TrEMBL record:
The keyword Nuclease does not apply. This is MFS transporter. Keywords: Cell membrane, Membrane, Symport, Transmembrane, Transmembrane helix, Transport. Gene3D superfamilies: MFS general substrate transporter like domains. The keyword Transmembrane helix applies. The lineage of its organism: Bacteria, Bacillati, Actinomycetota, Actinomycetes, Streptosporangiales. InterPro entries: H+-coupled_symporters, MFS, MFS_dom, MFS_trans_sf, Sugar_transporter_CS. Pfam families: MFS_1. Its main location: membrane. It comes from Nonomuraea insulae. Belongs to the major facilitator superfamily. Metabolite:H+ Symporter (MHS) family (TC 2.A.1.6) family. It is a multi-pass membrane protein. It is found in: Cell membrane. Residues 10-419 form the Major facilitator superfamily (MFS) profile domain.
Amino acid sequence: MNKARVPWKAVVGGSVGNLVEWYDWFVYSSFAVYFAASFFPEGNDTAKLLNTAAIFAVGFFMRPLGGWLLGRYADRKGRKAALTLTVTLMSASALLIAIAPTYESVGYFGVLVLVVARLLQGLSVGGEYAASATYLTEATPRGRRGFASSFQYVSMTAGQLVGLGLQIILQNTMTKEALNSYGWRIPFVVGALAAAVVFYLRRSLLETEAFDEEEREVKAADRGTIAQLLAHKKEALLVIALTMGGTVAYYTYTTYLTKYLSNSAGLPKETATLVSFFALLIFMCLQPLAGALSDRIGRRPLLVTFGIGSMIGTVPLMTALGGVTGFTGGLVLSLVGLIIVTGYTSINSVVKAELFPTHVRALGVALPYAISNALFGGTAEYVALWFKDSGIESGFFWYVSGCAAVSLIVYLTMRETRDVALSRTEQAAGDSVPTRV
């Protein structure tokens, strides 16, 4: 089963666009420590970060709309068409942030520009996740889907690494004053330009066999509708619940980690950034290994391992991270957290895609996932900063553990999806395997 060939052109084509999408998405958070003062009046640093975190969360609340519109578009027009559209929207939003005016020049109008840009990003990413997940899953033979789809988080993490790498370069080549003044705009310009290259690459992708089958046999009006999604409401609720714990943990150990190490542990920003960079580099390399493992032993064992580890380990890990005094301690503890999170990140997209039939697969992945991300992932950083500002920072650690506990119940009771057939061709090749067409 695992000897099936991996379609590397499809994997690379789907992933490289995802890299740019998530580079733009995450670079907002990683550079927030530098541009927060540009858009808000004088105040304490935590208050400014709370404001920028709130705008970061706004993008997440646009994701359900993006999941609905672009998931529907992907089920009707194709995965390739949706992938091309999402990267175009992301390019426009990055350019808006790059040229946004500051508070000093136009008052709060700059904040309005930031909000509009984040709304566009949320719309784009809400559809990108599902289009990428369904494309990578459908374009890969059964038996290698876990491995191939893990490159979604490889590309997401690579996008964040590129952003952090650029931050490290700018930190070492520009003064702090220059970074705060105009240097933070550079990564957004880079993101907008890179998206143009990805647009060209994605236009050369082939459509998936599963979608081509469905396009020939099912009318467009019957694909990607809310009515069709409601016919699979159990699966939709599963996606919301299984995402809850994973998305909170993921954003805790990735986008929030640098701020936590800087604000709470007291590490210099440069050291905190280096910790995040090397931890994420190793985390990225773990994704295909865990994805391939799921092709052998199933998806549920990895999800259950994540659920138990996150529920039990978050409080002691985050407490210990808050007391680190140097690079090595921060790196080791961060890696422990990210290794636990790998049980979710490496396979969450393929599990969701395997739950739905082709005619509603993109929408089924997009909308429930976006809702869960809006409620839990997008607010994770804001909730963490709120607890800190209230003087009860440890309350956030228990919040993350509680979310993981809820998802663990789902992991323990859901069905295994590894051997589901996603197309009629796959079904014909193995009639004993349940089908999802």
